[in-house]
Design goal:
The chain has 90 residues and is an alpha+beta fold. It is 18% helix and 53% strand. It contains two helices and six strands.
């Protein structure tokens, strides 16, 4: 019921769903770049694993030569040879 109300509200007001429910948005470009918007914090960072905390879950990126290319208060950009992306409940 609650999700139905939120969906109706986002459609009526033409607001993106991620804004209303404070969800993170992740964009993956090939297997070498990930952008995560609306994140809370970076929990773990090394060249083989980066863990990002979001409002709904933790996002774990694993691979080789991983780097945080840019970090702002709103988004994080990760580049490297990405092998996997996993979601873990908080």
């Amino acid at each position: 019921m609650k999700n139905g109300i939120k969906n109706s509200l986002t459609q009526a007001l033409e607001i993106p769903c991620e804004v209303l429910i404070n969800a993170s948005v992740m964009s993956i470009v090939g297997k070498n770049e990930i952008d995560i918007e609306n994140y809370k914090s970076i929990l773990e960072y090394d060249s083989e694993r980066i863990t990002v905390n979001t409002s709904g879950c933790m996002i774990v990126i694993e691979g080789k030569t991983l780097e945080l290319k840019s970090v702002t208060t709103d988004s994080v950009n990760i580049k490297g040879d990405i092998a996997s992306v996993a979601f873990k409940e908080l």
